[in-house]
Write a structure and sequence with these properties.
Number of domains: 1
Number of helices: 4
Strand content: 5-15%
Distance between the termini: 32 Å
Radius of gyration: 16 Å
Helix content: 40-55%
Largest sheet: 4 strands, mixed
Oligomer: single chain
Shape: globular
Length: 110
């Protein structure tokens, strides 16, 4: 984070395990859920990480359909700076630990 703070204007990071965005050391962290667009059952602000280099034509079609059907639910990164963002909670820490525990366990099994 020191390099980002000193060498860039980046203050929003879209890659974390949490229920809602949180603020830490001058950065806003936004939860990122998976490599495909999907309806989120939780109320909050999330991002999806798509990898076009590994997506099929069907993946692109599903993403385009999702985006067109849900465009009213999207906001810009600039808008996030105007939304109250809390510090990371105990539950967020717990989710992070559980996620990486199971990810490590899966790696040991495979």
């Amino acid at each position: 984070m020191t390099a980002l703070r000193e060498e860039s204007d980046i203050r929003i990071i879209s890659d974390t395990i949490a229920l809602k965005p949180y603020r830490n050391k001058g950065f806003i962290f936004i939860p990122q859920f998976g490599g495909q667009c999907r309806d989120m059952k939780l109320n909050g602000i999330f991002t999806f990480c798509l990898h076009p280099n590994t997506m099929s034509d069907g993946d692109f079609a599903r993403a385009e359909l999702f985006l067109s059907q849900n465009q009213s639910r999207f906001i810009t990164f600039d808008a996030i700076e105007h939304i109250p963002v809390r510090p990371k909670t105990f539950i967020d820490h717990l989710l992070h630990l559980i996620y990486f525990f199971f990810r490590k366990l899966k790696g040991l099994i495979e």
